[in-house]
Amino acid sequence: MSDYRTLRAGEEAIAVRKDLRVPMRDGVHLAADAYHAPDDAPRPALIAMSAYGKELQALALTTPPQRRPSPMWDGCIEAGDIARVVREGYVHVIGDVRGTGDSEGTMIGNYNAGGVPQGRDLYDVVEWVAAQPWCDGNVGMIGISYFGSMQVLAAAERPPHLKAVFVSGGHFDFYETTYHGGVMWFMPRAAREGRGGDSGIAHTDVKSRMIEQHSPEELNRLVEQRLADPDVAAWPNLVHVLKYPKNREFWFDIVMNHLDGPWYEERNPVNLAANIDIPVYLQIDQGRGWTVDGHIELFDVLKGPKKLDIGSYPPMQSRPWIEEHDTMFRWYEYWLKGVDNGIMDEPAVRVFVEGTRETVTGAQWPPKPVAHAPLYLRPRHKLSAEPERMGGEHAAPDGFYQAPLTVTDTVQTVSWRTEPFEAPTELIGTGAAHLYVEIDQPDTNLILRLWDETPSGARQLLTSGYLKASHRELDAERTTEGNPYHPHTRAVPVEPGAVEEYVLRLYPFAATLLPGHRIVAELSNAEPLADAHNSLLPPDAFHLPVGRPVTHKIHRDAAHPSRLVLPFTTAGAAQPHPAAH
């Protein structure tokens, strides 16, 4: 039996039906709260479902929103502004997925629940909500990140009463959510364990799929095999997780699965999105390239009415989440309330361009024609439109030595700069970095970050690219100029001392380099703990560093044309090059 009560949010009264029990088709009951205006008139409902706990989301009524960096920022308060949802005339339903919070059942592995696809549970939640007397039968969904991913899984199941979704900041390709270019990313640990400013999953009954699927003997063999990776063996948290898997079963699953394949593809929302026929609005801010990538990939798959809105840097919204609500309510006013407000007359794609701070629109991504053009790495740390003509005996390689972070706190970088741009130069799209690198170990990370540097030396991140050297294999059929594709289905050790070409994919971005500004390309094999970009992210949002000492030599002579390949728009392609000096 639910508990009905009335709350105050400033001057407003909000009714809440606490601890509703939502029946699933297998007899399990999920827990949810429903917030609405004090009268019982039927209204459209916006459903927010995640593993982060509905009680945490209720703090949106009492905790002022704050952006990173802030000691009070909590990445898991993502279900939206409850008071505003109610004020706009909706029921805000916030629930716990199976095996978490106040819900029954078992959650097995990431985005799987007791062997039940989460989309199936979400179908049942949507249809149950639509049948309640306080709902008018029109249902949408709300929430960012985990909540956004759940919207895609729900829509792929086609519940009849789910009329539209508005997805912001979701994570879609599960492998790319946890391994960028094959390099492990620690943010999922924060989301699951509650480290680095995130409350994490509200665990009640969760189990590892790896433990479920393998005998103890086989699992021990696989664990020892994973511990043979010196990067993993050098990181205390990972050693602990692998030695005591029941301590953090979800994170254990991720650490154990470092290659792409069926384990990740089974519940990949991008694969399921071909089933979606309802209207979908996709919104994402620049600065976290992998999530921008996923939204574009999803947009291209969807067949029904759709929008793609790529917003401005910086990458982290407020917590509790309050941004994008104006656009979201226009979307739902049209699709759930039948108000013709003109939103569907607007272009399908909107992209905020850093630098000019203008918005460009189009029917697809990129919204403008693009010509990929190279900028070559040259001696004296220069980036130039002209390739190097000297051989390696004269154009000696650049390089850096990185000691493991077990023995140093310093992350070494090597960088190359253009001359100042003379005219505004616009870039929109994906890019690539072709780097000819020689290392003295079987593996390393290659992390390239591209910066817009102002005349004063201040800088803002444009985009980034990651590649574990052993994952350098390309899919020739899917790779195009400026848009490489790595399958990540096997790791091939590097021959120490061999010069190899590594092609890093640079995540999608949109920026105009203004007169006097430079592009700076910065290469490392780990990330500085704090800089102009990382200070905007939660403390755990960095990548697993290399666990052995590595010397890197970056060859960029006539025989080894190391270069960036960048997406200049047609208007800027006539003069993509900085001033010649």
Mean pLDDT across every amino acid position: 93
CATH domain class of the largest domain = Alpha Beta
Radius of gyration: 24 Å
How does the overall form come out from the CA principal axes? globular
CATH-assigned homologous superfamily of the largest domain: Alpha/Beta hydrolase fold, catalytic domain
Terminal CA distance reads: 76 Å
**CATH topology of the largest domain, which one?**
Rossmann fold
Largest sheet: 7 strands, antiparallel
Specify the helix fraction band: 10-25%
What low-confidence regions span 5 or more consecutive residues with pLDDT below 50?
none
How does the helix and strand content classify structurally? alpha+beta
Give the strand content: 25-35%
Q: What is the count of distinct domains?
A: 2
- Number-wise, the strands total 28
CATH level-two architecture of the largest domain:
3-Layer(aba) Sandwich
H/I helix tally: 16
Features:
581 residues, alpha+beta, Rossmann fold, 2 domains, 16 helices, Xaa-Pro-like_dom
Description:
The chain has 581 residues and is α+β, with helices and mostly antiparallel strands. It has 2 domains: 3-346, Alpha/Beta hydrolase fold, catalytic domain (Rossmann fold), CATH 3.40.50.1820; 370-573, Sandwich (Jelly Rolls), CATH 2.60.120. The longest helix is centred in the first third of the chain and has 13 residues, at 118-130. The chain is globular and about 80 Å long.
